[in-house]
Amino acid sequence: MTNEELKTSIGIRLPSAVMEDGSDFLTINIEATDWVSFAQHLRNDASLQFNFLFCLTCVDWKTHLTMVYHLRSTIHRHELVVKAKVDRINPEIETVSHIWRTAEFHEREVYEMFGVKFLNHPDLRLLILPDGWEGKKPMLKDFEDPINMIRL
């Protein structure tokens, strides 16, 4: 499916989505509250079948956080980026680990690095950082590390 065909299909399903062009990936900006139902549609619709979540990350804009999901259909060979804005003070979004198993580890990493709470995640705990780092959110732009301080 071409990006234009993806835009049409997604626009029908989620008219509130804002689409961006200009890169290799078609990018869709959605409301965080729409994420789980939209994700299920992306995974289960026969014409879309986004069956592989290959990257999940977060961006700190200082005023808010943006969740970024990279999806691929290994069947139809099309790709999509989905972005959802979340609150920086109380960042929460529903998990999609029950839709794409790869999300389970990616969400744990974003949880420990940015503090995003993935609601209904089956095992939301630190993934990489050692004990004692709970709640420190080292990837937020205002994080200060007194031992390895680098000022730009």
Quickly describe the structure:
The protein has helices at 3-13, 35-44, 103-114; strands at 18-20, 26-31, 52-60, 64-72, 79-87, 92-94, 117-119. By secondary structure, it is α/β, with parallel strands linked by helices.
Keywords, separated by commas or semicolons:
22% helix, two-stranded parallel sheet, 152 residues, five-stranded mixed β-sheet, 3 helices, elongated, alpha/beta
Textual characterization of the structure:
This protein is α/β, with parallel strands linked by helices and 152 residues long. Helices cover 22% and strands 28% of the residues. It is built from 3 helices and 7 strands, in the order αββαββββαβ. Strand 6, helix 3 and strand 7 form a beta-alpha-beta unit.
Please write out the topology.
Blueprint: H1 3-13, E1 18-20, E2 26-31, H2 35-44, E3 52-60, E4 64-72, E5 79-87, E6 92-94, H3 103-114, E7 117-119
Parallel strand pairs: 2-5, 6-7
Antiparallel strand pairs: 1-2, 3-4, 4-5
Give the low-confidence spans: none
How far apart are the termini? 44 Å
Largest beta-sheet details = 5 strands, mixed
Mean pLDDT: 92
Strand order of the largest sheet: 1-2-5-4-3
Number of helices: 3
Portion in beta strands: 25-35%
Query: Which descriptor suits the 3D outline?
Result: elongated
Q: Return the structural class.
A: alpha/beta
The amount of helix comes to 10-25%
Q: What is the N-to-C order of secondary-structure elements (H for helix, E for strand)?
A: HEEHEEEEHE
Radius of gyration from the CA trace?
A: 16 Å
Strands, total number: 7
